[in-house]
Protein 1
Amino acid sequence: METLLTSRPSVGSARAIARSIREGRATAEAVVSKSLERAAASEAVLQAWHAFEPELALEQARRLDRQPAKGLLHGVPIAIKDLSDTSDLPTAYGSPVYRDHRPAMDAACVAALRAAGAVVLGKTATVEFGASRPCATTNPHNPLHTPGGSSAGSAAVVADGQVSLSTGTQTGGSIIRPAAFCGVVGFKPTFGSIAVAGTKSYAWSLDTVGGFANSVADVSLLFEAMSGHERSRFDESDCRPPRIGIFLGPFADVAAPSTVDALMRVAAACSRAGATVREIDAPAIFRHTLEWQRAISRYEMGRSLLPETRAFSPEELGEVLLAEIRAGQAVPETSYIAAKAGASRLATELQSLFADTDLLLALSTPGEAPFGLASTGDATFCLGWSLLGLPTLNLPAGTGPQNLPLGVQLVGPRYGDECLLRFAAWVERVVSDA
Amino acid sequence: METLLTSRPSVGSARAIARSIREGRATAEAVVSKSLERAAASEAVLQAWHAFEPELALEQARRLDRQPAKGLLHGVPIAIKDLSDTSDLPTAYGSPVYRDHRPAMDAACVAALRAAGAVVLGKTATVEFGASRPCATTNPHNPLHTPGGSSAGSAAVVADGQVSLSTGTQTGGSIIRPAAFCGVVGFKPTFGSIAVAGTKSYAWSLDTVGGFANSVADVSLLFEAMSGHERSRFDESDCRPPRIGIFLGPFADVAAPSTVDALMRVAAACSRAGATVREIDAPAIFRHTLEWQRAISRYEMGRSLLPETRAFSPEELGEVLLAEIRAGQAVPETSYIAAKAGASRLATELQSLFADTDLLLALSTPGEAPFGLASTGDATFCLGWSLLGLPTLNLPAGTGPQNLPLGVQLVGPRYGDECLLRFAAWVERVVSDA
């Protein structure tokens, strides 16, 4: 099965970059320069960066070149979604009202990446506050199509080969959807596994920090560095073929037939390579996940963004955002609590599934990235997993009828992040060999 | 049973203040002036305020006096724990490294209180980052004793009658403990029920915004305003006698006999007034709650405060804090995940208890506030409920052998905050009549 990834020029994998710097075959400065050139060449069309100060990135690289390489990501350029604070770069959360904002402190995930030796190349464009006003970023495979959102810039710069790693956040579908549309690996860890300090709060029960890479191995490195682990424990070699549950769920008819076909081709390739594959019936209450995720997400965003409604005028905030905030404030508390209770019941039901299933194979999006930049596309297939807080990963899975990327979603049990990543690497290898 | 509350001069209840302003019998300016006078008279000994700008508070009050009273707390002065951001007052998180910090935006809980018409009187002293370096605040009942922590200033200013309401946060015992030591009502809602945006993150799985008042009715008003509810739904009259479970738990021998006696007196008074009271055997795994709460709290604080270790020198941060952060970073991920899994198992076990029990009656602290200001006292009896995310309330329950306040803790089921508050008002009435 062909993936688009191999056909694009790239700065190379994060593992390769880190190794070549560690072994003295490259300098951080040279690697950063290459990323900067690559970014400059694409930006006029891609519009993926919010804040981008080449001299600042080069300074960080030169400072790292004067030190011994000790961190997991020593000298590796990385892009940060602009919902996370940076002390040395502007942070606007995708909103014009924060255009001049300079946070006092790095977000915890940014500090963890810097502590691992990563060079922050810049901040990537995001849908405003992760809500709904799209940014100007275009799809790297076709600029007339959306890259998805809200982590639009972060998915685009990795797909475009400018950087090997970028951070993202997901509350509904903000990592998996742009990863699928841009043809990259996107990983949303278990809810609560990465520190949220300094990352703009939208819905505190759902907001999850994760990121993008061009391979499962690289996204694992990113996860380890953001988790504050001391060293890489990722080893895809110690992995038996997984027991896979095909989970189409109650919304499968929203998906294009070619998307379901792509998923079935992945399942067939895994089966041929020795995986146990069976179809899973979704619990009956899974059909409520859309309404539950929306109730929680809206209720909480109406409270998290209340300060902005007091600090800025309606004209500054804009009608659409203000209407969303007001709608969130109007969600009845009873609906909110019922949604939490329902999600908790469903989580218990699903957890038993994982007793004899290593991962669920699910749809990432209904199809390829839609035409136009006014919408970031449909997140139907992401909302349930966000609601449940389960770790989930988008794996590129060929292309659709318009020659744009398709992806499949691999879902693991709560806190089964490392196992999911190992099994995902197995599936990735099987798919690329197919 | 005598409580200390009635013996102290006070600005009066939040409900009475709000009503008198609404009915034109008082102005916000006059009410705020009274709070300011009361605060100024105590501050030399009490040391409860971090930032306090009388002119700013009076300006807010005058502005409210020119508007129609519409919010729940129109004109009511309130104190904000200095872990929550304020756009018009310095916010230091109790730390010298943030002494000049001026946040760009109010925390969500502050914005909600302002939206309800509250006047922010100032920021109250807190243990540094809510970790362990105490602030200078003294116990309002005896300045040689700790007020408890970390929400020291917020508990003290309410106990001292300077304000009727203040905010607090709890990760371990930071609301219930100071409430018990200062003899006030402290309420920690269900984890996740109040927006955390703009409140300094310490342990994202545990941090909960709540607050203090001199009565259950007032703390209910505070909770409603912070939750972003439109109007007060608190009505203690529609409350049958509760079914109470006495929960001494596996650590009861840490408590002084007089503390257990106080709890038993409350239980007896409730029983006489018609409540069903029975003793509850703690689930066997409850004894792990201390180790689980600590594993999660330390693991997460080591990651949340990582940015500070990069931005400030070891000398600026101090040896003790730095050692705590490093120890948190060294907590094995396996211990962290095991603690989460254990807590989840215990939560399920306890939830079934609430099928035929309205509230648990538990110890708040081992005894009265200890002598000295070097430690904020023992949080043993708070950690389990924080770990489980259950709503919990400290109710003053007379005094101990040193004539300092004692409290009892009332615990409700997840998201049963409103019921817990109604039943707590019932218990409060019974106790004050006894």
Note: The first helix of chain B runs from residue 14 to 22.
Protein 2
Amino acid sequence: MLENITSPTLLVDQSKVNRNVQRMADRALRHNLTLRPHFKTHQSGEVGEWVRSFGVNSITVTSLRMAREFAQCGWEDITIAMPLNPRELPGIGELAQQVYLSVFLVDPETAGKLSKEIAKQIGYFIELDAGYGRSGVKIENLNLIAAIIEAAGNHHCRGFYVHSGHTYEAGDKQEIDQIHEGLMRKIANLKSGLSRLAGTHPSGPVRTRLAQTFEFAIGDTPACSTQESFNHITSIGPGNFVYYDLVQAGLGACSTDDIAVCLAAPVVQVLPHKNQAIVHAGWVQLGKDRLPDGTHGRVVKLKEDGSWSASLADCVVLKLSQEHGTLQLTTEVLQELSPGDLLGILPVHACATVHGMRATGEQLIIAAPGD
Amino acid sequence: MLENITSPTLLVDQSKVNRNVQRMADRALRHNLTLRPHFKTHQSGEVGEWVRSFGVNSITVTSLRMAREFAQCGWEDITIAMPLNPRELPGIGELAQQVYLSVFLVDPETAGKLSKEIAKQIGYFIELDAGYGRSGVKIENLNLIAAIIEAAGNHHCRGFYVHSGHTYEAGDKQEIDQIHEGLMRKIANLKSGLSRLAGTHPSGPVRTRLAQTFEFAIGDTPACSTQESFNHITSIGPGNFVYYDLVQAGLGACSTDDIAVCLAAPVVQVLPHKNQAIVHAGWVQLGKDRLPDGTHGRVVKLKEDGSWSASLADCVVLKLSQEHGTLQLTTEVLQELSPGDLLGILPVHACATVHGMRATGEQLIIAAPGD
């Protein structure tokens, strides 16, 4: 297979993807959770089909554009995980004719526009901020939650969604545990608060809507991958877990061996006097993320069947420019290296690598070692 | 025009592009330099035509893929500015049947393969490293230069190319001046060395080739934009100058008003309690680069004709995730802001913004204010 690769090429190890999805599906089953995976990481119709084969039938995406792409792939329950952009209401109304579409609401003003401008019932989640500090309603703000539900009229409140993005900044698994446990307490409080409000809210229709059964969803891959206590959580929407990457391995969300994508990078210059090689692989192909040690990836050897070795000791991606990568290698690796050889690079952040490779129009090769 | 924008959209101000290209074309004319612009920044057939209208007829690209794209747009003199990847020799041979293709050589081994595997004469530049420390032959290494020329056989050595990428890390204009002046001295030495070698090299054909007139080319936008002394330099290959960005403005290579691209970002949440707003614009749309102050861009107001204001005081892009951006704004700007409004973002690094937007398949709108 390797001899067909002439330019930077993203290898996807199907058996690792299947293993990663299987593990997450098992975890969901074990805890009675709906798995509604986020498709922003792979953005691939084909990889989406592999995920579907594990019984998944509802998905999360980032944008209306991505929702349209996956609607075309036959997905019928799609949630756009970004506060609703009022400018997209016409497009959302149109797509809602074809699929069961859900959006995120974070304020009564936009909820009111949704109610007024889209007649066909769609679903929505109220996005909650439980400490990440990005988008969403503060999880303690019950009045604002009730105001959104009131303003959204007859659209269907499916529940609440929390993306604890700060688990990505955690130093280790223990810190992820702490963030997750804090969130579980906050969701328990929210649930009591909603029950109380269902009895006391002045508006009859709002009381009825508050009395229904809600979903409580979380989305961050680190918590979804590591936690075993989900309490009131009813669904999970991780994205990165299909491929994982070096950041997730660093957090303990996966092992390095679980990383299911690898960039095949052609060597274009060998610089023995400084133990370096230049490859055709820059931030265009890999993204600009860095590991805590400042490097941009780890180096592996590629095998003829498209699989790859464990990461080579002391071999790192030192620097990236637009399409050049500078690798720092050992004398051992360098002495058998020539221009035209291929090396593999494990990505720091798979989402960025996949997005960058989409823009180059380069080949994506599905490797299924052992098949 | 703004009412047609529903999702993140890259605005290109054609009048600013024309002004930037005119200025660079004037500089080239003034110093008797060939302008061979690098098309990696815009990667657009349409913008390429604007550049062509200034009399440009030879261009630089990063990859064989990009060379193919611009060959399809009718460009006939294309240089691939990356050490030749031996795996691409068949593709290079094929494209060389249609256009005058030039490549970069950095070692005799690959030069020998080129000579052996491609019969039709193509051009090449020897890439030199004059202190950047990335790819290329060390500028002092005359023996290696001669060995490459010998190994490349009858292919046409057009000359030498230096990308002083370290000007991007310069603190200010004075540091760029120092790097450039150092380079001018090194090129003068190289030129004397080549003359000497043309008289003494043991191989007759190599002596003949060394006696010809060579191009001496530089590529970094900071030096190309700011220097007025080019000595032995005969051609310049800047890329970023068509659009410029906040990094270039910080280096003094342009003014903020020269920046010719701006991302129109829909506001999806307003957070008055912390003077922030969330926009649909993340690292997918903007790239992950940061300014020295750690922020990811500056905020402007968009005008109805697609142009934009000067950057708003104390309004910055604080954080980016995949498609969410967190803006830190002033109370003044916030008080008139609602979800569904558009704000403009000036990019830190235009090459990354343009590349990211290519992958989303979002609209690119050519704004030509005043036309």
Note: Chain B has 13 helices and 17 strands.
